[in-house]
Design brief:
Blueprint lengths: L2 H19 L3 H12 L30 E10 L2 E10 L4 H14 L4 H5 L4 H10 L8 H10 L1 H8 L6
Antiparallel strand pairs: 1-2
Helix pairs in contact: 1-2, 1-3, 1-7, 2-6, 5-6
Length: 162
């Protein structure tokens, strides 16, 4: 998959979910890019079936849906450690995007990110502070993706302007 193909596959669902949530769709797209490496690092089931998990959402004890196990890097005290972790698995990209939107909209932890919604910088800062990921550079990485020529080029290929 190329970045342009990735945008074709995920952006329509992201646009719908972002509009319903009142969040900037480009920051949601940047998160999907960061979490999956433009779709190249998506967790897969043992048989190779894709998880369609666009946002790296872990399958905790409260998750009763399908799961896949994958290696991930977690940070604790600034130290990166590789771990095998269970992630949520979905039947489609749309299901993944909708679950992510539900998570953002229903969790008090992410209220500031959603409240900053239309403002990309406010969302990114809030999602980083809320600890969406253990990576201390998570917010910086989202900003770097949004400013990258690859991101902008993939959007422009679809006549989408930031």
């Amino acid at each position: 998959d190329t970045p342009t193909q990735f945008v074709s596959q995920v952006f329509p669902a992201i646009q719908r979910a972002a509009q319903a949530l009142g969040v900037n769709p480009f920051v949601m797209l940047a998160q999907a890019v960061l979490e999956t490496g433009w779709g190249k690092r998506m967790a897969r089931a043992a048989d190779g079936t894709p998880s369609h998990n666009m946002f790296g959402i872990k399958a905790d004890d409260g998750w009763d849906g399908a799961r896949v196990a994958a290696d991930t890097v977690e940070f604790s005290g600034g130290v990166a450690t590789q771990r095998r972790t269970a992630f949520r698995a979905y039947g489609s990209i749309e299901d993944s995007v909708n679950d992510f939107a539900r998570l953002l909209g229903s969790s008090p932890r992410y209220r500031d990110a959603v409240d900053g919604g239309g403002n990309a910088e406010a969302y990114i800062e809030a999602i980083g502070k809320a600890g969406y990921a253990t990576d201390p550079r998570y917010a910086n990485k989202l900003n770097e993706i949004m400013k990258s020529s690859t991101f902008r080029g993939a959007l422009m290929a679809h006549s989408i302007v930031l």
